[in-house]
């Protein structure tokens, strides 16, 4: 590929779901520099520490440069033939459900689309799931229950226009930093804007909060169900909206009315005074946005939490209006793109439903596929259990590192080691998952490949290449298409460019879409190479040419009070909070896992930047001073955190920001970066029964001093 050294290339940050625009440039000496794209509507020129350091994470270090079979370097033809023939043989001998793809929110939409098409339409199984299952599956399930579709109604502008922002389980300052910066800037212009943080920890986000509700772990269902009851008791409902646009309110209110303020206080660990002040503020502020992310989603009651929040917005008619609505923000750069193409085991492409026979028929006809998966496949945790018990005999992992990031990581590693056939396509040769692969396929990295991603506010942006790949890496879409052709599905996988795939994806979104589905980018069907090259960021739905920019966007979801259910009405979900005690005398603390500001997932990219490691150089555990005193732990001591599944060694950070009875540790370090650092060796494969999302923020644990500092 020819690189124009003088030109800045417009691309998108590969880290979080904010989806910031990046201008990347390669100097004549090969040095890469990046800056925020001032014209991108997600960030208007801002970048956070991770985005700013992107140039430092590019390099040959640790790259997988050539295909390998059993550690032997080989050519692409042999490797692809081997993958295709082994998958075909496994399917012939054991059926389509004996194979699985575990994919990633790091994939570009075009990669994701082809992987989903291959598995669901041509293999005939729905055993494709994604690490986004760990990120936002509960929000997807909550949206589908309430709206009849997985529709995120919020936009970033809504945050700037709101008079009240309620942040639930969301440390935006560290996890979505540019969104936090946008809120902070809006707040400076409008000091009357109020911000409430609902989080067991006093995170950096609390710096801009007017009120911090240090809620008990998993107290969110009680908090918002209690709010619904309080709104009913205080005549603060929008009865006209409820009657015109919703069903199920009576049952939801009846279930909520079991909660009085005293019982909510007990369940949430908050005082009645705190609850009363928050509830009054919510009731009095029409322009309220409730933002939530992993603290809500990563829970065994994650879907109920989402619906408890949505119930309050429906009850007050605060949805589909500027500056008002529930807003789930995604963690990964292309979690939303994965939702669009059916990258989850219980979805079909173009936001269609695998359990809907009409949708299956429509997708099958569009693809001209020999068959189509008839039922949902295995979700992430179940998939690795399927690998462990032998149901899955051939597994392809794309662009993710489940050996370090799945709950109960030791069991996942053992399952992968025992699996008869494991393919990993990845940028790096050195991840803990790649090490166990029978076939390693080198994938092109950020900056070397072309495609699209969709951010948290449904904005589709281009990622563009500006670097030549070293060695033989290929884009993921190319690898998938080549395997599909070798499995005998050549005609349906004849794509030569990502533009062709995007054009097909867009055409499917508009195919027989009579407005009964939310996702529609039909205006881009069959987009040509030039149009794709020039594609500017746009939000969906965009069914007609010209739809797309923030100013011109014709549609605000749910503005007309119509939802995607059969009767076009939103559903209240009746929820009764349950209390679950996971701690035991041996494991008396609740371990909450999460992110820090300057690292990403298992550090396979950010770990390359010394600058990013300067912020926090080693794994740590936040402990409340009283818990530290009780366990005889001093600041900076080395501490062993143990759960029934394993243990890690980390540095003690004693802080009143941490809630007593809980500890917090970041998920990023693995054994590669710290001695005994793999935190997900402690977490359990406990999932939300509706969404299948693991409860990564509520793990029974204990701490003890390991050695003096
Ligand atoms: Fe990248 Fe997210 Fe930072 Fe934006 S906020 S620069 S998308 S990591």
Automatic annotation (TrEMBL):
Signal peptide: none
Biological processes per GO annotation: cellular respiration; nitrate assimilation
Keyword Iron-sulfur: yes
Required cofactor names: Mo-bis(molybdopterin guanine dinucleotide); [4Fe-4S] cluster
UniProt GO MF annotations: 4 iron, 4 sulfur cluster binding; metal ion binding; molybdopterin cofactor binding; oxidoreductase activity
Entry keywords, A to Z: 4Fe-4S, Iron, Iron-sulfur, Metal-binding, Molybdenum, Nitrate assimilation, Oxidoreductase
Keyword Nucleotidyltransferase: no
GO cellular component, one term: oxidoreductase complex
Protein family: Belongs to the prokaryotic molybdopterin-containing oxidoreductase family. NasA/NapA/NarB subfamily.
Protein name: Nitrate reductase
Organism this protein belongs to: Mesorhizobium jarvisii
Residues of the full protein shown: 1 to 709 of 892
């Amino acid at each position: 590929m020819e690189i124009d050294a003088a030109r800045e290339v417009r691309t998108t940050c590969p880290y979080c779901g904010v989806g910031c625009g990046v201008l990347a440039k390669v100097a004549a000496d090969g040095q890469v520099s990046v800056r925020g794209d001032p014209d991108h509507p997600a960030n208007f020129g801002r970048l956070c520490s991770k985005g700013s350091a992107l140039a430092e994470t590019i390099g040959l270090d640790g790259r997988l440069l050539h295909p390998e079979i059993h550690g032997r370097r080989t050519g692409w033809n042999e490797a692809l033939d081997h993958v295709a023939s082994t998958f075909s043989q496994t399917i012939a001998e054991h059926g389509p459900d004996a194979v699985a793809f575990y994919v990633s929110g790091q994939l570009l939409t075009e990669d994701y689309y082809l992987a989903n098409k291959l598995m669901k339409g041509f293999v005939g199984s729905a055993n494709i799931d994604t690490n986004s299952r760990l990120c936002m599956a509960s929000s997807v399930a909550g949206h589908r229950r309430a709206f009849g579709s997985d529709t995120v109604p919020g936009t970033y502008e809504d945050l700037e226009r709101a008079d009240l922002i309620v942040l639930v389980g969301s440390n935006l300052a560290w996890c979505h930093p540019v969104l936090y910066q946008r809120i902070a800037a809006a707040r400076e212009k409008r000091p009357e804007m109020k911000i409430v943080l609902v989080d067991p920890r006093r995170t950096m986000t609390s710096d801009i909060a007017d009120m911090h509700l240090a809620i008990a772990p998993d107290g969110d269902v009680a908090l918002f169900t209690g709010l619904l009851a309080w709104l009913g008791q205080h005549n603060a409902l929008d009865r006209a909206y409820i009657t015109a646009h919703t069903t199920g309110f009576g049952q939801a209110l009846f279930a909520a009315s079991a909660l009085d303020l005293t019982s909510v206080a007990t369940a949430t660990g908050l005082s009645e005074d705190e609850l009363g002040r928050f509830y009054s503020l919510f009731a009095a502020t029409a322009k309220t946005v409730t933002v939530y992310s992993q603290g809500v989603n990563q829970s065994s009651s994650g879907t109920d939490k989402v619906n408890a929040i949505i119930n309050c917005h429906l009850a007050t008619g605060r949805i589909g209006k500027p500056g008002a609505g529930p807003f789930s923000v995604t963690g990964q750069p292309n979690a939303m793109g994965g939702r669009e193409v059916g990258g989850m085991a219980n979805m079909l492409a173009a936001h269609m439903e695998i359990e809907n026979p009409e949708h299956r028929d429509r997708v099958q006809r569009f693809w001209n596929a020999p068959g189509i998966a008839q039922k949902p496949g295995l979700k992430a945790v179940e998939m690795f259990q399927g690998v462990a018990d032998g149901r899955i005999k051939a597994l392809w992992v794309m662009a993710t590192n489940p050996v370090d990031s799945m709950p109960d990581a030791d069991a996942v590693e053992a399952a992968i080691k025992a699996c008869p056939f494991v393919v990993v396509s990845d940028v790096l040769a050195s991840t803990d998952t790649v090490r166990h692969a029978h076939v390693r396929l080198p994938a092109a990295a950020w900056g070397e490949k072309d495609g699209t991603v969709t951010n948290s506010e449904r904005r589709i942006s281009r990622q563009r290449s500006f670097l030549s790949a070293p060695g033989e890496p290929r884009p993921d879409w190319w690898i998938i298409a080549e395997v599909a052709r070798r499995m005998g599905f050549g005609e349906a996988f004849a794509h030569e460019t990502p533009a062709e795939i995007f054009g097909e994806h867009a055409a499917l979104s508009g195919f027989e879409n009579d407005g009964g589905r939310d996702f529609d980018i039909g205006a881009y069907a069959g987009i040509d190479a030039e149009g794709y090259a020039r594609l500017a960021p746009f939000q969906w739905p965009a069914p007609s040419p010209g739809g797309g920019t923030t100013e011109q966007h014709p549609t605000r979801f749910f503005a007309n009070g119509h939802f995607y259910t059969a009767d076009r009405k939103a559903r209240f979900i009746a929820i009764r909070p349950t209390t679950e005690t996971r701690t035991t005398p041996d494991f008396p603390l609740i371990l909450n896992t999460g992110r820090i500001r300057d690292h990403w997932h298992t550090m396979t990219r950010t770990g390359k930047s010394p600058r990013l490691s300067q912020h926090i150089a080693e794994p740590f555990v936040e402990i409340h001073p009283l818990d530290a005193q009780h366990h005889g732990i001093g600041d900076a001591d080395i501490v062993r955190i143990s759960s029934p599944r394993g243990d890690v060694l980390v540095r003690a950070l004693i802080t009143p920001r941490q809630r007593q009875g809980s500890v917090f540790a970041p998920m990023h370090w693995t054994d590669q970066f710290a001695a005994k650092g793999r935190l997900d060796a402690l977490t359990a494969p406990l999932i939300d029964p509706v969404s299948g999302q693991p409860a990564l923020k509520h793990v029974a644990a204990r701490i003890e001093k390991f050695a003096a500092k």
